[in-house]
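Memo to structure team: turn this sequence into structure tokens by end of day. - J.P.
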Amino acid sequence: MTFSAVQMLLSMQMSTMAQAEMLSTGEVISRYAAHADRDFLLSELKKQEVHDELVARGVDPNEAETRLAALSNEEIASVIAQMESDTAGGNGVVGALLTVFIILLVTDLLCLTKAFPFTRCAGR
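Reply from structure team:
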């Protein structure tokens, strides 16, 4: 009887042993980055304005959260990249207006135009 008890104890102990593996720094960073990106998207979904927009478009916010949780790390990275490019594209108008302002300012200073009353011509 004791032999079978010892054998059962040893077999249970062997099945619960932890497995250790070496991870590179890049693998660890990518795992944590994927978790951080997923948490970021979940926090964005919980914002009131996002919630209201989802409801206005006929999307159940709980269903969106469930689908977000089911995305792979690569899909999460793709969504984050899309959000960043959309945000960068939204600032293109501001960049264009700033460029036009600088061009007009320089041409005013070079006495080529007179677009702004607060500039003085450098040639005079």
